[in-house]
Design goal:
Layout (H helix, E strand, L loop, with lengths): L2 H12 L13 E2 L6 E2 L2 H11 L7 E2 L6 E2 L2 H12 L5 E2 L6 E2 L2 H11 L1 H6 L1
Antiparallel strand pairs: 1-2, 3-4, 5-6
């Protein structure tokens, strides 16, 4: 079996039991971390990347933390070590890694602002 076929089988196993049609009206929310996606395909990719139960085997060369996949490592390095994305809270000044984390922070710590947005 060639490499392409092996990769295709791995990807198809992640999506086993999921309809081919990924179109979905409205926002889809992850039941584990409440991340929001515009369609089921985005949610399923997120679940595979972030919440899969595979072993953590990829190591960050800067802090030695282990990750499940290259995507998670790349995001970690970009946000933690390169400080590429930062979003300050206008209410308290806390600086968060990205807009998603800022939105969660506001919802949890400043519900009065969250209800306005």
């Amino acid at each position: 079996m060639d490499n392409f076929t092996q990769q295709l089988l791995q990807v198809s196993s992640i999506f086993q039991g999921i309809p081919i049609d990924f179109k979905h009206e409205g926002i889809v929310t992850c039941s584990i971390c409440e991340a929001e996606f515009s369609n089921l395909r985005g949610l399923r990719l997120h679940e595979g990347r972030i919440h899969s139960k595979s072993e953590k085997s990829i190591k960050c060369c800067e802090c030695l933390r282990l990750f499940k996949n290259k995507y998670s490592l790349k995001t970690h390095v970009k946000q933690v070590h390169h400080k590429a994305t930062r979003e300050p809270c206008v209410r308290c000044g806390k600086v968060l890694y990205n807009k998603y984390m800022l939105k969660k922070h506001i919802k949890k710590c400043h519900p009065s602002i969250a209800s306005i947005e």
